[in-house]
Amino acid sequence: MKARIKGEIYEIPFNKLHIRYSDKYLTEFRQDTSARFDKRFKSELHSKFNQQLQQQRQNQPTQNLNAPNSELKNAPRMKNGPRMS
């Protein structure tokens, strides 16, 4: 970066450049923008999580064979079973 100080031009490398702002409005603006970006990032994460949940619900099988009551649901009904007389 080139800077003119008292009529002379100086070349200043960016890693040596330290700028301190005393402007309170600039620091407030920086804090507001960081909060806004954090909020946007959190809402993006929330929407991605909801999207994954919706996809899992759509792709889930109709019958859960690992459920403890699946044997009772899939067992033959008593009215269709053999008669005991």
Automatic annotation (TrEMBL):
Residues 50-66 have a biased composition (Low complexity). It comes from the Bacteria. Residues 49-85 are annotated as: Disordered. This is Putative MobA/MobL domain protein. It comes from Acinetobacter baumannii 1499986. The lineage of its organism: Bacteria, Pseudomonadati, Pseudomonadota, Gammaproteobacteria, Moraxellales.
